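Much of the work behind modern protein science is quiet bookkeeping, done one molecule at a time. Below is the pair of lines this work produces for a single protein:

***
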Amino acid sequence: MPESDLPACFLSPDRFFSHLSAIEKDQESVFRLASSIEKQFEVTNPWRQWISESIQLKSRLQNKNFPMPFWMISGQRLEMATHFSLARFHASLVPEVVSEVLDMTMGAGFDTVAFLMAGLQVSGWESDESAFYQMMANRALWKLDSLNVFHGDSTNLIPDPTVFVYADPMRRSGTKRMAGYRPDPSGLKVAEKQPVLIKLSPMEDPTIWINRGFKTIAVSYERECREVLIHRNLNPEITARSVWIDGVWFQSDHQPDQIPSHSEGPDSIYWPDPALLVSGLAGVTAEALNLKPIQPGTWLCLGKTTGVEPLFIQYYLLDNQYYKLSFLDRMLGGLVRERPLIFKKKYSRVDIDSFQGRYQNRSVDYSQKPIIVLITDIGNKSVFYLCEPADLSQNSFIKPR
């Protein structure tokens, strides 16, 4: 079908997205429109693919405006999380000394706009055509004249060392991609010790980024509502604890002697106070709970475990044992190799024997530091806390039985 026979609204990206904005926000109506376009106009590639992707993108963007079933702290109060409020959170992680941000995976520009609102100078790149045109429309709508927008691959850029780099790689198949489902840090050609804020796949191992010399990493999980900040210089002696509020971790100022503890010899583990694991706190202030937002350079963990250094936190939402086993396999990935692997649990229904059995038939080098997997349940969520001993000689509990 020649381009001239297409409806006028499809010849201009701006007019196309303007047309879509009048459509109902429910998914069914959007995809009915997509099907109708294909049948009435016999749209073929590349127009068919472009229109289909654009409609799906618009639908997802519209859904981002709705509150999600999670709480987060805004100022001194708790509020329902939205993608915009999370974008403001990402902007708050940029160090105060930074004035310029390079958004390598701009997408529709939610985080980009938050950086601008924080008073930062921003340059945004997007490789996907549909997402790029959406951002151009948003740029005009929001009057973001100071925003520099570029269409192309940003992974080969080498920014000035003073520029703060933000990257949000796509975690599954979709229109916005930077380096695929499991992005490789070697694809980011940034200067050594470049300050970088990166949102990773739930299955991604953050240590490979840390080992490459990246200065700061923020890890985001499913639905972009679970944030953990990891700093390159991890400090196992940090006494500040974190708290889980219906999907979001926050730091608390409680000291270890104030935390209800459950000690078992040398591997004492401090778990979060169940009284703070609450939901539906619309009328409760953050100050009343003695909470404060996550700050750069702070390691947040499930609790304080003496004698260990944290590697990273992972958790899964399903109760199905098979999914948990499969998840752990992907989470550990190549991290284990020949290192000893020790499983411990507290207040968890997870069958540890099933996990241990999967890793019995392999060669183990007991001269290496073991990886300790601590498992607990919070509601119907299983939390996997990976760590390693700070000093092998001081941790008798890790020796093989």
